[in-house]
Amino acid sequence: MGLIVPGPRMLAFQYRHWLYMGPMRGGVRAVARREMPLGWSGGRLYTDSYPRRALLLRGSTGRLIKVLSPLPFHSSPVVTRGSLYLELRGALMRARGTRVRRLTTLAALGMSADSWLQPIGGLLELQDNRRLMILRPGGSVFASTPLPRRDGELGTLSSSPVPDSHADAVAFTAAYGESTDPNAATRAHGKETVYLLREGAHSAVALHTEDVSFRACERGAALHWHGRWLLYDNSEGNVVLIDAGNARGRAPHPGSG
Predict the structure, then answer these.
(1) If the chain, 257 residues long, is cut into consecutive pieces of 10 residues, what is the mean pLDDT of each piece?
(2) Are residues 82 and 149 part of one domain?
(3) How many alpha carbons fall within 13 Å on the CB side of residue 11?
(4) Is 109 strand, coil or helix?
(5) Are 186 and 129 within one domain?
(6) Which helix (H) or strand (E) holds 106?
């Protein structure tokens, strides 16, 4: 069984290089070979045809509607809220149904050609080796920050950015001093910092730092918003509840530090 992509009333998945589609209540059938489901736009399905690498759109019955675009080898399309986004020849593109349009270019955003893209809630994360940028669905810049450094060391993002419920800020974590050797006999001692990046900002604000003994594998952190509070936990067992009110420009909660 390969990738499984559920929709509101439809299901698509890959099994032994065959693409299957059908309603949730049954009647799923094979419709094409060597196609990977990417996501739904209404009742239509975006797929990645391989090895030729082409972006396709299929109807709810599996009928091919349109070949939308060739896909470069390094391109990884993502689908969120009915739209598909991809990087193509140095541009950020958005497809909605059969319509494909260019939103902006990586050069105009100040991002390198090897940037990678992923959806985060209703926003988009664009990252390269030196900068993290958050984009709105239309391609405009929500906020950006250089990748954080600590004592001259470039941090490694150890969690995905997470938007708050108001979609006016995102939080993420960066780790410093972690071991990259999966065969290391001892844990690496380092630090992990929780950052806040507000809408319109050009630099992230550090909220909290933990001393961490990093495992050689199975490491990472997760962030969850609860109103103004941010819950941070990682695979090493560090769990912290952070009041992000001050950093967001709000009055502190009584009794908070």
Answers:
(1) 89 95 90 96 93 92 92 82 92 93 95 92 93 96 93 84 92 79 59 94 94 71 94 87 73 32
(2) no
(3) 15
(4) helix
(5) yes
(6) helix 106-109
- Residue ending a domain, among 106, 125, 160, is 106
- What does the DSSP assignment read for 125-149? EEE-SSEEEEE-TTS-EEEEEEPPE
Number of domains in the chain: 2
| CB 190 within 8 Å of CB 206 | no
Give the angle subtended at the CA of 18 by the CAs of 100 and 49, to the nearest 5°: 30
CATH number of the domain where residue 57 is located: 2.120.10.30
How far the first Cα of the chain sits from its last, in Å, is 49
Residue 218, phi-psi category: left (phi > 0), alpha (psi -120 to 50), beta (remainder): left
Q: Find the angle CA(249)-CA(227)-CA(126) to the nearest 5 degrees.
A: 75
| Distance from C-alpha of 47 to C-alpha of 45, rounded to nearest angstrom | 6
pLDDT, position 66 = 94
Q: Which of 74, 106, 138 is the last residue of a domain?
A: 106
Query: At which residue do the structure tokens 């996501």 appear?
Result: 39
User: Could you give the strand order of the β-sheet that contains 83-88, starting from the edge strand earlier in sequence?
Assistant: 78-80, 83-88, 91-96, 99-105
H helix or E strand, kind and range, residue 108: helix 106-109
The reported pLDDT for the residue numbered 185 is 46
Which pTM value belongs to this model?
0.84
Distance CA 242, CA 205 (A): 13
Chain-centre distance for alpha carbon 182: 25
